[in-house]
Write a structure and sequence with these properties.
The complex is a heterodimer of chains A (101) and B (382). Chain A has 101 residues and is mainly beta. Chain A has one helix and seven strands; from the N terminus they run ββαβββββ. The chains are: A mainly beta (101), B alpha/beta (382).
Chain lengths: 101, 382
């Protein structure tokens, strides 16, 4: 779902770009966050809870919580709600606290 | 609140709680511990949670071995209903100069003479132990797998509960406002909640110890300064041991939760009781980590805090009674390693106060060593 019309905000959408989500090709727009592109594509589950591994989705949307942390281009714990989408990005769901190299 | 006690201990960190427990276990009665805040609210609760046996002097090796062996069995000995969360996952001491490496080699001879299972490790082996270590800047390392971590709050709680079961009374949020002395003898303690008559006072206030001593006109050669720590976001387990460096100036451990806790010393800290946090520490800590353990440098910092080091001229504690004021004992000046020496502090002080044969000879840590010019210099302190 995308909000196309809003009484206060305007959306200046950039060009359409390609990225992958768990290896699947996806489309999003330049200028939007990774989480926004996934949400628009119907992806609601962004990760798993740490203890019980239950689904975790879009939550605070301002980079304060850890609900949208994903592995982006191999880097874990990326807050996808405040990270802009780029052409060719590899976005993966993360289970656990993330492994750094 | 009692109005009479045989022994009043001031400070309920690891030292005060361990002294109280050790006294009560040896049969002392009527013991009171006074704490101006809550149990473990001072330096113990703010510490880096590590313990090690890798020291450079025989006495510190023996004392730390004694403490370690106690920690290994502390849940049982103290009959704790919780868990002190002991993890013997090692200390990797890293050197970046030949001089420091030579010191490590000397230290290890002393450690081996005390039966401590430490060893020198090659840089390749150091990298196997801690894969994200930047060995390019190092000259060598030493390792002891029996060193490790335990939870300071739980450990103090274990001592506190054991002491309480033995009849020790704890008065928290109670501040000592005066210590009564008559004819060179301790007569009582005054607090904001009332006065207690006693003939024995034990100053276990660490950061606040020199201020307390001033109440009876004693100048202890101590000062306090904050030392800061930060904690990062958690990641999956990747570092077993504490990584510690004197010259590079850092210590860093990964907690069971996955976060990294790290600290370093900062020259030129003000000598007072402030435990505020600084940007300077964050910047210097980040630079050090980027250099030594670059992978961790990517992690986000969650928060930072500080605790007081109570510094003595030779960075060693004072375990003694004060000449000229009968009944006034001090266990302070821990200079950053009071938590890991907690078991030995309690044992030494309890035996001293009760006039028992010492289990460990700690006479080198007497107060008069400073006036005598007989400092006890330990080469391996942060």
């Amino acid at each position: 779902m995308r909000i196309d019309q809003h009484p206060i905000l305007t959306f200046e959408r950039g060009r359409q770009i390609a990225f992958t989500f768990n290896g699947q090709p996806m489309k999003g727009y330049e200028g939007e966050t990774i989480a926004a592109a996934l949400h628009a594509a119907g992806v609601k589950e962004l990760g798993k809870s740490l203890e019980l591994h239950r689904p975790r989705g879009f939550y605070c949307a301002i980079g304060n919580c850890a609900s949208c942390q994903m592995i982006v281009d191999g880097e874990p714990n990326v807050r996808t709600c405040i990270t802009l989408l780029r052409e060719g990005m590899s976005v993966e769901t993360q289970n656990g606290k993330g492994r750094i190299k | 609140m009692k109005t009479k006690a045989d022994i009043v201990i001031i400070g309920a960190g690891i030292s005060g709680c361990s002294i109280a427990y050790n006294l009560a276990k040896r049969g002392a009665k009527n013991i009171v511990v006074i704490e101006k805040s809550f149990i473990c609210s001072g330096s113990t609760g703010a510490c880096g949670a590590g313990f090690r046996m890798q020291w450079g002097t025989e006495m510190n090796c023996r004392m730390s071995k004694f403490s370690t062996e106690f920690f290994e069995n502390a849940n049982d000995i103290l009959e704790y209903d919780g868990d002190i969360e002991l993890r013997q996952s090692g200390y990797l001491m890293i050197a970046n100069t030949e001089k420091e490496l030579a010191q490590f080699k000397k230290n290890i001879e002393v450690q081996h003479a005390c039966g401590i299972p430490s060893r020198m490790v090659s840089l390749d082996e150091a990298k196997e132990i801690v894969p994200h270590l930047n060995t390019d800047i190092l000259s060598g390392a030493a390792y002891c797998g029996k060193d490790g971590f335990l939870n300071p709050h739980k450990t103090t709680d274990a001592y506190y509960k054991a002491a309480k079961r033995l009849g020790v009374e704890f008065y928290t949020y109670t501040e000592v406002t005066g210590i009564r002395v008559e004819n060179g003898r301790i007569m009582g303690v005054e607090t904001n909640k009332g006065n207690i008559e006693t003939r024995i006072v034990v100053n276990a206030a660490n950061g606040w110890a020199q201020g307390l001593a001033k109440l009876v006109g004693v100048e202890l050669p101590l000062y306090s300064e904050r030392h800061q720590i930060l904690v990062t976001e958690p990641v999956e387990p990747m570092q077993d041991p504490m990584v510690m460096a004197f010259n590079l100036n850092l210590y860093v451990q990964q907690t069971p939760h996955g976060s990294f806790i790290m600290g370093r010393s900062d020259a030129g800290e003000p000598r007072d009781l402030r435990i505020t946090s600084s940007w300077h520490f964050l910047e210097e800590m980040a630079k050090t980590i980027d250099k030594v353990l670059p992978a961790i440098g990517k992690l986000r910092v969650v928060r930072q805090w500080a605790g007081l080091y109570n510094m003595s001229p030779d960075r060693q504690p004072i375990y003694d009674k004060v000449d000229g004021i009968e009944g006034f004992y001090v266990a302070c000046g821990f200079s950053g390693h009071g938590f890991m020496f907690g078991p030995v502090t309690g044992t030494v002080m309890a035996e001293m106060i009760l006039g028992l044969e010492p289990t460990i000879d700690a006479s080198r840590l007497r107060l008069s060593r400073f006036a005598e010019g007989n400092l006890f210099t330990e080469p391996s302190v942060v």
